[in-house]
Amino acid sequence: MRADARRNRDRVLAAARAVFAERGIDAPMATVARRAGVGVATLYRHFPTRDALVQGAFEEQMDTCSQALDDALAASDPWQGFQQLVETVCNLQRKERGFPAAFLAAFPDSTAEHAQARKDAEHGIMTLVRRAQATGALREDFHPSDLGVVMLAHCGLVAALPDDAAASRRLVAYLLQSFRADATREPLPSPTTLTLDSLPFTADGPPGRRSSRA
Description:
Blueprint: H1 3-23, H2 29-36, H3 40-46, H4 50-57, H5 59-74, H6 78-95, H7 99-104, H8 112-134, H9 146-160, H10 165-179
Helix pairs in contact: 1-2, 1-4, 5-6, 5-8, 6-8, 6-9, 6-10, 9-10
């Protein structure tokens, strides 16, 4: 890639993160182009679809989440690994305001590699949960889909209180404490059927939201 083309791409990605933080990941592509100071045609040359732009904008954060899961699976204490994974993902959601929806989004235009990565992530999470339960640290009725519920709950908090780091940390701490095994607790209701691919977010935003594709 030529130096000028690389600069244009970097400007587009920086503008996309800023616009997505302000208006959500369903913000018009033209708005991103204007913020980047490039033409819409230039934007589409680098990112032919909205999905590609959203994934490109948050590629670094997605890689961090993937590494956090690998680190959690490699941890000698599965509970510590589980806790660090939840804290890392929630911290990324808080720091990059457009990231929560991108993390939860289903991308119809995803490559086979991206789809396989999501499947691998679901398998890794299930493995981590089982290990933490086997040590007696994680409550037996915790279900891997509960992590999706955690992400949705934290996403809502970040959207409502984007600058309140204390609220974010407190919610995560409350949730993690509730996940610890305790024989005196009442059992939970049946788990949700959520998977990473069934979470109610797409690259167009949450259900009921519509936006121009311009």
